[in-house]
Target: GIY-YIG domain-containing protein
Amino acid sequence: MLTEDELNWIRHVLSNYKPFEISPSYFYKMTTEIERNGNKGIVRKELDELRKKMIKVTPQELLEFRNKNVRERRGIYNFSGIYIIHNCVKDIYYVGQAERIFDRAYQHFVINAGNAEIYKDYSLGDEFSISLIPLENTSFSSLNELEDNAIRAYDSFKNGYNRMPGNIMDKHIFKNADYEKAANLILDKIKGTEVFLSLSNNRKRMNYTSSLFSELKLPRNIHFLLGFVKMIKEYQKAKK
Model:
């Protein structure tokens, strides 16, 4: 486990917590939302241009392209990107992302597999068009960034099929470099333990982290505690 010198240093780092200060992650999220909402028109124009150039399919074609051989006979290969589902009758959208686009996008047109509202409208006869856009063809650096900007550009959360907004935070932002170093020190000591591997949801992660910090006699620092819980989740997701 951690040495006494390491623990004393971590306690010193965490002792400067001010109860009512705004966390860096919250500040980043708010400023990023303002920026992205302000850029919706620019993003919409970029993606509309790409939709004209990139592959566009019907639900029937998308279902056929589940088959790798069918795709490759057409010179089409799987890729990482987003899919924009457009209900041409209601003029509303759904935006999704996938590391392997053809393994995910079709599921919305299969019962009990994707978005239930899309499938309902599809089964009632509404016309759909699906645009498939590779991440590498856009100006964005990650799938989360691309998807969130696209959801805003097509207003698909408030007035479309998306039931959740996009993910702004790819990684938790700690208050400073020492906070992050302290979190990594603790994580390195626990990540191989049996109890760590059993942390399958946020409730378990929170209970474990609270108990661990109490055991280590760390100062009460809610921003660091919540950040560490998120760090555990991010680490587990990356290792899947």
